[in-house]
Automatic annotation (TrEMBL):
PROSITE patterns: AA_TRANSFER_CLASS_5. Coiled coil: none annotated. One of its GO terms (molecular function) is transaminase activity. This is cysteine desulfurase. Pfam families: Aminotran_5. Belongs to the class-V pyridoxal-phosphate-dependent aminotransferase family. NifS/IscS subfamily. It comes from the Bacteria.
Length: 382
């Protein structure tokens, strides 16, 4: 069967440019060379690694510099490293700051740090979204005081596609004397980021057509930080372990392509996503998770819907049998469904949340494949 892959938010297929960068590296004299070695090939590998940092820093913008780029293994490690390292670093500098604030709609790689932080003596506060999945500045401001060390709010939600007012939230956080981190894994390479006021952010290669196993944290040099690993002092002592030069170069290649084509692809993908929404939600049995699913407040290429009369697992399996690969906003395990923490935090009922679906794609998915998918899903629901 020829499958139509519609789960790009989980991981996007590798781009030709990234694959070519990997092959070029493998055929070069520095293939397998440690970029921390002092000999000529080691120094050459280090220069290639730094060139990848430069591409990524320029694409992120916000006055981030090449030395601010910390390579790591994935978005989960990047979020762990950022939140734990920054929280401990800030508290080491000012012992009164022992509170960390998360939004209730963060990825598990952030929310699962709450008990870890509490064991380390931090207080964790949770800011709730409104019904449209957005964190409001006034609500965040009500949780901030002089004891807050760090606030972490994701740039775009991985389930609903809702884009948060990160620039505003960062400025509010700074007025309280705290630092701001954002998980930008879903947003980077797909929309233009506004991160001038952000202290640190996490991005990942495999979301934009780069390889699995390589990601980056961009952290400003002024940010207090406590390393969360120990070893050879790589990445300026912030993340230890020999760097993956091949992965970094492929990451940079995918980044460069996305940056060069951002405006065009964003327009194409937004148009196709809006048409999918309109087609599917014409059925009384399907509804969007948010009322405002188009425009500047929503990620292009992320379609988030609910089928209250069915459960996600059944829908996913039926679509898989028909050749369409999608995911849910809920976790399926051991034959039982847990309602999405994102949707329930938005005030969506458990019954509706259990029927959620997430359809995600970029410009490489054709309009005809999306039309065929819509026809199939409407038939299944009907």
């Amino acid at each position: 069967m020829n499958y139509v892959y519609l789960d790009y938010a989980a991981s996007a297929p590798m781009r030709t440019e990234a694959l070519y960068a990997e092959k070029t590296y493998e055929a070069s004299p520095i293939a397998g060379v440690n970029p921390n070695s002092l000999h000529s090939l080691g120094r050459q590998a280090a220069r290639e690694l730094d060139s990848a940092r430069s591409v990524i820093a320029n694409a992120v913008g916000g006055k981030f510099r090449s030395p601010d780029v910390i390579f790591c293994s994935g978005g989960t490690e990047g979020n762990n490293l950022s939140v734990l390292g920054m929280a401990e670093g800030i508290r080491n500098k000012d012992h009164k700051r022992n509170v960390v604030v998360f939004s209730a709609i963060e990825h598990d790689s952030v929310l699962d740090l709450a008990p870890v932080l509490r064991e380390k003596g931090f207080e964790v506060r949770i800011v709730q979204p409104n019904r449209q999945g957005k964190i409001e500045g006034s609500v965040l401001e009500g949780l901030l005081d002089q004891s807050v060390a760090l606030v972490s709010v994701m740039y775009a939600n991985n389930e609903t596609g809702v884009i948060q007012p990160v620039a505003e939230l960062a400025r509010i956080t700074h007025r309280a004397g705290a630092l701001f981190h954002t998980d930008a894994v879903q947003a980077f390479g797909r929309i233009c980021l506004e991160v001038t006021d952000v202290d640190a952010l996490t991005i990942a290669a495999h979301k934009i057509g780069g390889p699995l196993g390589i990601a980056a944290v961009l952290m400003r040099s002024k940010v207090p930080f406590q390393a969360q690993s120990y070893g050879g002092g790589q990445e300026s002592g912030r993340r230890h372990g020999t760097q993956d030069v091949r992965g970094a170069l492929a990451f940079a290649a995918a980044t460069r392509w996305c940056q060069d084509n951002l405006t065009q692809t964003q327009e194409i993908v937004s148009m196709r996503a809006n048409k999918v929404y309109e087609t599917l939600c014409s059925s009384p049995k399907i509804k969007p998770t948010t009322a405002a699913y188009a425009g500047t407040d929503h990620m292009p290429g992320t379609v988030s819907i609910m089928v209250p009369s069915m459960d996600s697992e059944t829908l996913i399996l039926k679509l898989d049998q028909a050749g369409y690969e999608v995911s849910a906003g809920s976790a399926c395990s051991s034959g039982s469904l847990n309602a999405s923490h994102v949707l329930t935090a938005m005030g969506i009922s458990r019954n509706e949340a259990l029927g959620s679906l997430r359809i995600t794609f970029d410009e490489r998915v054709s309009e005809s494949d999306l039309n065929a998918f819509c026809t199939t899903l409407l038939r299944i629901v009907g």
